[in-house]
């Protein structure tokens, strides 16, 4: 089997203690603040364009709500 396989990028969305929504891309040192969950999901889709990516969404307590390939 030939060809190169892209490394999967994990994109995390979570609520912080103050109720804000954050987006973090694995391997980046910073997080992005988003207005709400829908804005964060839209931002994750933009980041994922052209990449093998998976979205992981957590609640404020660190529990995984869902995962989804993008």
TrEMBL record:
This is Uncharacterized protein. It comes from Chthoniobacter flavus Ellin428. The lineage of its organism: Bacteria, Pseudomonadati, Verrucomicrobiota, Spartobacteria, Chthoniobacterales.
């Amino acid at each position: 089997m030939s060809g190169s396989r892209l490394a999967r990028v994990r994109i995390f969305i979570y609520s912080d203690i103050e109720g804000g929504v954050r987006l973090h891309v694995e391997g980046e040192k910073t997080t992005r603040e988003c207005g709400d969950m829908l804005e964060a999901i839209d931002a994750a889709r933009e980041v994922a364009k052209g990449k093998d990516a998976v979205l992981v969404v957590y609640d404020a307590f660190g529990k995984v709500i869902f995962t989804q390939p993008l």
